[in-house]
Amino acid sequence: MAARTVHKSAIPIQNPNAIKPAESNGIMSDTEGSPSIKSQVPSDASPTPASAIANHTSSIVPSVAEVARPSATKAPRNTWQALDMGGVGIKNIPKTSGLFAFTFLTNLYLNHNALQTVPPEISKLRQLELLDLSGNALSSLPPELGMLTSLKELYLFDNQLIQLPPQLGTLYQLLTLGIEGNPLDASLKLIIQKDGTPALISYLRDSCPIPSPPPDRVWKHFVGQAEREAMNSDPTTETISVLSYNILCERLASEKLYGYTPSWALQWEYRKELILTEVVNRNTDIICLQEVDNAQYEEYFTKALAEHDYEGVYWPKSRYKMMSESDRRLVDGCAIFYKASKYTLVEKHLVEFSAVAMQRSDFKKTDDMFNRVLGKDHVAVVALLESKETGTRIIVSNAHLTWDPHFRDVKLVQTALLAEEVEKMAHNFARYPPRLPPTPSSAAGSTTGPTAGDNNASSRPPPLYSDGYKIPAIICGDFNSMPDSGVYEFLSTGSIPPDHEDFMSHVYGKYTSEGLRHRLGLKSAYAGVGELPMTNFTPSFRGVLDYIWYSTATLSVNSVLGEVDPGYIDKVVGFPNAHFPSDHLAIVSEFRVRAPREPQPARPPPVFPEPSRAHT
Question: Which of the pair, 80 or 409, is modelled with greater confidence?
Answer without folding.
Answer: 409
